[in-house]
Amino acid sequence: MAGPRQGPTGGLLPAGRTRFFAVAHAAVTPLTKPGITNEKHSETGRHRPAGALTGCAATGPKFDEQQANTPKLAADQGRVYFYRVNSMVGAAVQPDIKLDGAVVGESKPGGYIYADTSAGSHEAGTSTEATNNLSFVLDKGETKYVRTSVSMGLMVGRVKPELVGQEEALKEIAELSYIGKPAK
């Protein structure tokens, strides 16, 4: 078994950790000469993480704007809203959201979708390195709200669905963008 090694800053690292720190160190090490730029490098020549500050947040009409275009719920169905508050924590982790095994959209920061479905027992889920499922019963004419949130995982963040009460959900969803398919 290999013993401790010297890290990029001179400190000792446990065996097996040198590769991680070498990769992390390489992400901030100049890849080009200062003053030379291209799509992946800033003017200083340091690597700029792609999508770190752009391209991750949802865009589309806000909840109040979209409500005018949201079709009326059929008498024999219920509606499930899925949403994720806007946060940079785990922003790049955007797994599919499934309802009863069928993909209905993505868990995207700052976005929401809805799915109309029959009354009865249902299962909503997301999957990254682990699958997280939520079971619930939906009545005819009822609306449920499922918030997805990111938590730490071993290699990738985990996105967990949880039922939220209507009052709390409507406060959180008010400024989110509709990211579903346009109504026909």
Automatic annotation (TrEMBL):
It holds the Pfam family DUF2846. Residues 75-153 form the DUF2846 domain. InterPro entries: DUF2846. This is DUF2846 domain-containing protein. It comes from Pseudoduganella plicata.
